[in-house]
Design goal:
mainly alpha; Helix Hairpins; 4 helices; about 75% helix
């Protein structure tokens, strides 16, 4: 159902299927809350990863932290894809549009 190298459109189609198959709630506030929870997990894993970088004797813990961070980032992407589905946004089109805007945007930071 999901190719090895999926496009964002593939991911959106997969999550439409998965939500139906598993009966996941499409409640927007609930799913935003779950996304925020996953972002918190990303922050936790980044802190964990930074605590292990630069210490050769802790290579295993660094690799473990990277694996956990990989999984938490994937969870965040899944919730973003799901939210896009629930409101009818083609995420791939939205991303390209926004990045094209960012390329010409003036950044005042």
């Amino acid at each position: 159902m999901l190719p090895d190298r999926p496009t964002l459109q593939d991911c959106q189609a997969f999550h439409e299927w998965l939500d139906e198959e598993k009966g996941f709630s499409q409640d927007l506030p609930l799913n935003v809350m779950l996304l925020v929870e996953e972002v918190g997990e990303v922050a936790k894993e980044v802190r964990r990863l930074q605590g292990t970088l630069g210490y050769p004797d802790l290579v295993t813990r660094e690799e473990e932290a990277r694996e956990h961070l990989r999984d938490e980032l994937a969870d965040c992407l899944a919730y973003i894809v799901k939210l896009s589905n629930y409101v009818g946004i083609d995420l791939e089109v939205a991303y390209v549009r926004k990045m094209r805007y960012n390329m010409v945007r003036e950044w005042n930071e």
